[in-house]
Structures are given as structure tokens and as C-alpha cells.
Specification:
Blueprint lengths: L11 H11 L3 H11 L13 H8 L2 H9 L14 H7 L3 H9 L14 H7 L3 H13 L4
Length: 142
């Protein structure tokens, strides 16, 4: 079986960046990006990145650091989800709200054809669902 996300350039530094996000250490995230020049959107062998991990785990401070240093907000992870899909799917309303402020397209679909609204509704995170609906209605994404 071939791993499609396998990256020969994956390093210990990249792993440290994922761990810093997992442990919610925004100062360490900033230091690794600035001093080591690490890319927060780089996918590991499982198809996940530090950026996507922030959205799915609700690591707001780490997400702010990554957004401040620039990241392609539309980037899909190895499973075909963007950060907005992951925030909606995992009930992370603060991350969802912040990503919407970045103008991430709410109508973008994952590899299964689902939008963030589908994900918010599927897992019954009512606040996430209301937040996406409110954003869609107020920004005329029809």
C-alpha cells in the first residue's frame, strides 16, 4: 500500500510543531515557525498538518499564530477536509468563527461533496450549525 501523504522531507521539527499544537503551546508554535522556518500546512504521513490540527482540536491561540504567519486557508488535509470542515465537524465554534472571519469559503466541499454546514449539522453541534448558517445568510452565499 502506498501512502499518498508520505513526505520525505518530514522532520523532527515538523513533528515538534504538531506536538506544540497538540499541547496548546502558541509560543512554541511561533518559535518553530519563525526560528526553524517550519510550514504549518505541511502534511505528515497521515495527511494532517499543524494548521488542520488547530481547527479540529480548538487550539485558538495556536490558530491565531499560524494565521498571523500566513497559511493557505483553503488547503485540504489528507482526508479532503479544509480547516472549516474540521472545525464544524469537531464542534469548535471559536475556530469556526475565526476561520469565517478569514473569508474561508463556506461553500467549499470536502472529498465527499459535503460543506462545513453539512458537517455542523451531521454531528449536531447546534452552535456551530447556527454560526455557519448566520454567516451564510449575512454574506449572501447562495
Amino acid at each position: 500500500i502506498v501512502n499518498l501523504w508520505s513526505n520525505q522531507d518530514w522532520s523532527k521539527g515538523d513533528e515538534k510543531l504538531l506536538q506544540a499544537v497538540e499541547q496548546d503551546e502558541p509560543e512554541k508554535v511561533a518559535a518553530l515557525i519563525l526560528k526553524k522556518g517550519l510550514c504549518p500546512s505541511k502534511l505528515d504521513t497521515e495527511g494532517k498538518s499543524a494548521f488542520h490540527l488547530c481547527a479540529s482540536r480548538g487550539r485558538m491561540d495556536c490558530l491565531e499564530v499560524i494565521l498571523a504567519h500566513g497559511v493557505d486557508i483553503n488547503l485540504m488535509d489528507g482526508m479532503g477536509f479544509n480547516a472549516l470542515h474540521l472545525a464544524a465537524k469537531n464542534g469548535q465554534p471559536e475556530c469556526l468563527k475565526r476561520l469565517l472571519q478569514e473569508r474561508i469559503p463556506v461553500d467549499s466541499t470536502d472529498s465527499f461533496g459535503r460543506t462545513s454546514l453539512h458537517h455542523a449539522g451531521t454531528v449536531c453541534f447546534s452552535f456551530s450549525l447556527l454560526l455557519v448558517c448566520h454567516y451564510v445568510l449575512n454574506n449572501a452565499f447562495f
